[in-house]
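tool_log.txt
---
The assistant was asked to compare two proteins side by side. It first ran the structure predictor on the initial sequence, then on the second. Raw inputs and outputs are pasted verbatim so the downstream comparison step can read them without reformatting.
(1)
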Amino acid sequence: MENGNSKAQPEKKGWKVNFFDIIIIVLVIALAGAFVVYKNHKASSGAAATKEITYTVEITDLEKNTEGMIKKGDTLVDKVKKYNIGTVESSKFYPYEKSSIDQETNEYKMSEVPDRYSAAITVKVECEDNGASYVADGGFPVRVGHEVSLLGPGYSGSGYIIGIEREDA
């Protein structure tokens, strides 16, 4: 007997793989794969061909003095995210009309709002086609019905994209 101890020393066991270890390993591999796919997608999307498109955005509820401020060549940016959304090609002003209910006939009618105007601004921009929409500088989606909050030199407004013209169509 060694040391007067009759009990045998327990063997030291190595690392055992359990269910939670497998989950962690799978998650790490999935995250690494997602990172590689994301990086490859970003690199390939940078090489995508761009095309120049012209779209029209209607902004509403403007004051009369705004008409002289919107000029061809003005660079427009998104008020919120500061995307470059294009360059003004032309603009057309007309009286602002708002939907209201006629109390006598109980029908909705369009009526002019005094001293307020709307503008249809034609904008030209370089875009990539991602399949669902055109995407301008920095990720601004250009598609009909998309809400736009634009900022130009000395003026701003909000409205919707009401038309798109493609150069290849």
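(2)
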Amino acid sequence: MSRVLVLAQNGIGGLGVSPEGPLHFTAMGTTAGDNTQDFYEITVDASDGDGGGGSSTQLEWEARLIAGLENFTITNSASNKFTIQATENVTANDFYSVVRVSLKATPTVYKDITITQSCYTLEINPTTVNAIATAGGSTSPITVTTSSVSGWSANVVSTINQAYFNDTEGLTSYSDVNGKTFTITYPKLSVPNATPTSTVTIVALGKDGNPTAVQKTLQVQQTSLPSKNVVWQCYNGQYGTIGGGSSNINTWANVLRAQVLNTSLFGPNGAVYMPSGFTISSNSTTPSANTDIYQTNYTSPTASNGRLINSWWLASNNRVLIVNQDGYMSGAISNLGLETYGYNGTTCGLAASQERVFNPDPAILNNKLIKYLLEEGPFTKGDTPLTPNDIHFVGRDGANNCVNQYPSEFVPILLDPRNNSRCIFGIDPVRRLIICGDVDLYSSGGSASANYNGPYSVAHYKFLNNVIAWAVNVAIYGDDFLDQFK
């Protein structure tokens, strides 16, 4: 009798996982209670094969992350199952990882499961916007879409020249759902030689409502006001004239001329920008057609010349008239036609040594023009603001005049200390008019040396330079600059 011997050896067995992948998580990650796939439960079949009797044994296995460890975790949930979870992805990058399931006794037997996680999406449309006009306005609506259920936010993070306007005016900052829009609004630009530019960030928000790293950047700009050089012309050769070209300078105005022609103050490299600076026009009894600032000096213009000066002045909102009248204010006002606006002149008769004081009503200190001259003008901005007590002027002689009647728009600055209804120096910002009843204020000789004894950083210089800056900016920018003072 023969016998048959059957030899058998248990096989290594099989290894299976379900699902096999690849598996994908959204940026939200694992969030219990939502309706998204927030975790994956993997079933493992690890058998030793058929031992000949129709039975098999589950072998020991393990699961581990072998690549891209960010954001993913593995937790055993049963003897033949494990769970893959992901935390929220708040970065701007997608994540990739591999989970390897292998037999403990035979690690070369394994299954790899690829898992990925996306970051939040964020798109803006349009991605660029046109510059906002000098007159002010808003961008076109910018639509934002994001995959974040918490929405997005938009904020101005930095602004060049932001001191000149409220850089968040009109910007609606949303924490909202898809499809919403925002706009950036700039007010009318009133500051010369400035190109306001805002950087806006639009950010996808995480589950907790805080910003993620997923963001877009948008640049918003406003068209700058174009500059030009300024022509300053004085009435024919009188006390206080700054001359024409390089001649006819009067000693009593040498400081004023020095300031005007200093291109580190007024010019391409100055606090007040002009392409090359001032042109000091030849002295004349009437302004030329291209004159921007016209200054009378000491004696009154004749009635006929006064009418011509008045016509020139009113023909453009970019023209400034300086009534610099040391001799006869009433005649100047009459001949220049200023009586129609409520101006009336008189003689002050202050002695040379008497101060012309800046002692305004406290209410006037909040006036926009006063704040410009003391604080917000280019020669004081960013510095310690001036106060009325910083402004001390004395005359060179006893010849001086005042206005004792003026319209409500007129801002009185230097007053007669004996009678504060008499104004020696003031500005009408509506009519682009500067009235000065003492040409000695621009002097640097005699008793007036106390006014301007240098250096340029002293309060008197800062104050005077801000006055000049105001006139220059009116001449260049007209109502674009003036409107803030009206």
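---
observation on (2): The mean pLDDT is 80. The helical segments are 254-260, 303-314, 329-335, 368-376, 459-477, 479-482.
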